Amino acid sequence: MANLADRLKLLSQPVNRQLLKATRRGIEKESLRVSPNGFLAQTPHPLALGSKLTHPYITTDYSEALLEFITPAFTDIDTTLGFQHDLHRFTQQHLADELLWVNSMPCILTGDENIPIAYYGESNIGKMKYIYREGLAHRYGKAMQTIAGIHYNFSLAPEVWSLLSDYEQTSLHEKNQHDLQSSSYLNLIRNFRRLSWLLMYLFGASPAVCRSFFSHTNHQLQDFDDYTVYLPYATSLRMSDLGYQNNAQSGLNICYNTLPTYIESLEHAIRTPFPDYEKIGRTKDGHYLQLNTNILQIENEYYNAIRPKRTIESGERPARALQARGIEYIEVRCLDLNPFDAIGINASQAAFMDVFLTYCALAESPTITTPECEAITHNFTHVVLEGRKPGLQLQKQGKLILLAHWAKEIIDSLMPVAALLDDAHGANHHQESLQQELQKVENPELTPSGQLLHTLSEKQYSFSEFTLIQSKQHAETFKQTPIAADTQQMLEVLVKQSLQQQAEIEAAPQEAFETFLANYYT
């Protein structure tokens, strides 16, 4: 495998540079619906938004009140973000007096009985979605189902992988495109895991949470005020365990060295019973409590910061799709909503993500050993809990290094990639994004987590008061910016189409649910 400098030189050739303009990214953004006074909405998913089962862009994730906005994958950052803005504007039209909560950690909660699970209708696929979420509630508690985040979907043009393989004449050259692409994306994922602590430092925005989130006192957080708990140097409580120790998944230890071992690890977890979940039971009095009593009900239950992905066909399991057709793109899952941005993410952050992920794809990526896997977990955990702590040290190649020093090293390594992307796009926003993030390394108070805690202290706001004010301000922004007429019409048509599609699914003959479920797993 050639080194990063050789790969960048190859891609900088005018005929090849254009391939980088074909990089695609899509954004999936979750956001709670809340009442005007900051409590979780108890209303069903608005009918005016269409069917959450079949709408391609507006659905729900876990709780009935947790909206999810999904963009297609575009080759232009501004187009991706613009589509997200349009989805938010359209949604705000149909929320009456409700608001979109702008922080990853939830609003004021009043107990599990007031956290509704998303309902998807009476078709078999709708029932399966509901039972899966009910299983999550039994396993992890309903409050965990109100946490929101941003998923950043990313892919390089397939021709990039073929170009590099031909140039380097590696063993991958003899493989088919699926194997080549899968191996290349696993390289990206391993490098991402090594460096993802930096994303938590730069973009973590959940250092505090409303006290109502906890139904117990076993959380090890500190009192900020009567209504807020926090950790003074935390970046992303969302990505911590928050006192919930998931013993079932802790033994999976997936480090992404090969696609077959990744798939087998998931398959094993879906087949292997877990004693605590067996105690819950699969059914009670004829009512399903969870899809199964195994470590994972389905692949998506595996909580991780990044996933290899493949577009799936109806009724197809993700692991089987990866096995059959390889990795198509990656999904970054560790990004918090930034409450200072209307849709939780801005163009500069997206540009940084493109540089970071392109670097992870092109840099050398040896397999991860067990000691390195442990160091990766250590670094990630420490940054989410105390990333802004002065003098914090992380583990790098068996030695300790100051977070700030390593962060600067990484950003320096990203600079040539940013320059190449800017050359390809005829702009300089990638290099500008790196300079902006470098300021956060030099001054931790400029990070979203630092800004949030500073605002709470300066204004003497509780977490919920601050987030409610931000939510109202962003709602006004959406209301004051009209949607283009053709976009408005397209979204209105999708509402009608999605409702009709769900009606047709439910009207079609349904096999016994137990048979449907057995067929899904086999």
TrEMBL record:
Domain called Glutamate--cysteine ligase: residue spans: 8-383
Coiled-coil regions in this chain? none
Q: Which GO terms describe its cellular component?
A: cytosol
Give the EC number(s) under which this enzyme is classified.
6.3.2.2
The UniProt keyword set, sorted, is: ATP-binding, Glutathione biosynthesis, Ligase, Nucleotide-binding
Q: Tell me what reaction this enzyme catalyses.
A: L-cysteine + L-glutamate + ATP = gamma-L-glutamyl-L-cysteine + ADP + phosphate + H(+)
Q: Which domain of life is it from?
A: Bacteria
GO molecular-function terms, A-Z:
ATP binding; glutamate-cysteine ligase activity; metal ion binding
Tell me the HAMAP family matching this sequence: Glu_cys_ligase (MF_00578)
Assigned protein family: Belongs to the glutamate--cysteine ligase type 1 family. Type 1 subfamily.
UniProt protein name? Glutamate--cysteine ligase
Native source organism of the sequence: Zooshikella ganghwensis
Corresponding gene? gshA
